[in-house]
Amino acid sequence: MILVQLSVYLITCLPFPMYLVYSTITIQWTKSSVQLAIDRFYSSLTVALTNINFSTTFYIYVLTTRVFRKDLKRILVEKRLFKMCFGTQLVPPIMRTNNGTIGTVAVVMRQPKPCNIQSRKY
Predict the structure, then answer these.
(1) pTM for this predicted structure
(2) In the chain, domain spans
(3) C-alpha to C-alpha distance for 92 and 108, rounded to whole angstroms
(4) Position with higher pLDDT, 75 vs 12
(5) Are 13 and 49 contacting, i.e. CB atoms less than 8 angstroms apart?
(6) Can you tell me the distance from the alpha carbon of 96 to that of 102, in angstroms, rounded to the nearest whole number?
(7) 26, containing H or E segment
């Protein structure tokens, strides 16, 4: 897993310092509009790759670690079961009437459904 993380890090983060070195060397050169467009494109691409690096850690863990997948599945299933058992609570906003008084607020709550969590498989 460390090898996968290291390779993804190198692929996504190494182009940005390379671009910084290139732009520092060529800052005094006169460039055509095509060359400026290519430089801007490469700059945008390297920044995007660097930003992608921050989100890939989650996917690397999901794809390579069995314990992480098991815990993630357990968390998602428990959240879904909690919603199924207890439902949602809806509280509408306070309404103002034309004469400036505050109207009544009704709270709508669903009754919890009976759940048998032990019979569910994870």
Answers:
(1) 0.52
(2) 2-64
(3) 8
(4) 12
(5) yes
(6) 5
(7) none
Copy the structure tokens of residue 111.
Answer: 């009754």
Q: What pLDDT shows up at residue 1?
A: 73
C-alpha–C-alpha distance, residues 87 and 84, integer Å: 6
For residue 108, the surrounding DSSP H or E stretch is strand 108-109
Of 5, 96, 13, 99, nearest in space to 48 by CA = 13
Those residues with Cβ within 8 angstroms of residue 72's Cβ, 6 or more apart along the chain or in another chain: 62
pLDDT digit string, tens, across residues 27-73: 899 989 999 999 999 999 999 999 998 888 888 888 888 888 888 88
Contact 81, 117 (CB under 8 A): yes
Residue 117: what pLDDT?
56
Asked if residue 13 lies in contact with residue 50, where contact means CB atoms within 8 angstroms, the answer is: yes
